[in-house]
Structures are given as C-alpha cells and as structure tokens.
Amino acid sequence: MAENHIPGSYDGIYRNIMRESSGNPQAINLTDSNAAAGHPSKGLLQVIDPTFQAYHVPGTSTDIYDPVANITAACNYAAHFYGSIDNVNGPY
C-alpha cells in the first residue's frame, strides 16, 4: 500500500475486517442490497466485483478473495472516498 501511496493503518484495516467479515477471507454477503442488485460483497473487506475491478492495485492478485488483493483494493477505494480506511467506521 505504501508503494502505491494508499493510506491505512493496521488498526483501521483490522477494525473494518472484523466488522465486515469476522476475518473470513471467503465471506460472501448474499442478503444485502448489493447482493439483491446482483453484486454480492466478497472477501475480508466485503468488496463488490465492480469496485474491486475499479480499485484493484496492480501487482496484486485479480482474485477478489485473495486477502492482499481484497485489502488493497478496499483501502484504495476508501482512500478515494474517505481519505483512508482509518476513517471508515461503518459500512461503506
């Protein structure tokens, strides 16, 4: 993340992972509005496919369930909209 100038602390990432997926990298939410729209949230930080594709960080896996790829894409998204994953204290 530092190499790509994406802010975020361990504590901010951990807090959001525990809220979003309880630490399960294979988590998938099939019950929220994203799922109803055909885009279920997936992975540690519950990213939908279009967001993952838009904020994917080059050099990481293209697998949304890959922990590093999921975290970096979510943190990249959060940086653009909230300044940092550290500023996210509820669902995106």
From TrEMBL:
Residues 17-87 form the Transglycosylase SLT domain. It holds the Pfam family SLT. This is Transglycosylase SLT domain-containing protein.
